[in-house]
């Protein structure tokens, strides 16, 4: 299978997931997780820090809740290792 054919096949399978109505149904999840990460980022004002860790955690939280229905707060320090393992 050519790379472009493989991509097209994969794109066709996942396209319904990104339909506007599906995304709208997750607005609450997006909003709550966004508020949480903003609250955490406020503690970093005036400091130099790596935003990657924060964004990785919020991304994992959103994916777990929207794709698997699991509400896990990886933005807490205790769950950070879990988030990093999932990202690998």
Automatic annotation (TrEMBL):
Keyword Heme part of the UniProt annotation: yes
GO MF annotations, alphabetized: heme binding; iron ion binding; monooxygenase activity; oxidoreductase activity, acting on paired donors, with incorporation or reduction of molecular oxygen
Keyword line: Heme, Iron, Metal-binding, Monooxygenase, Oxidoreductase
Needed co-factor(s): heme
Pfam families per UniProt: p450
Stored InterPro entries: Cyt_P450 (IPR001128), Cyt_P450_sf (IPR036396), Cytochrome_P450_Monoox (IPR050196)
Protein's UniProt keywords contain Transferase: no
Protein family per UniProt: Belongs to the cytochrome P450 family.
Protein known as: Cytochrome P450 4g15-like
Organism for this UniProt entry: Bombyx mandarina
Gene coding for it: LOC114245272
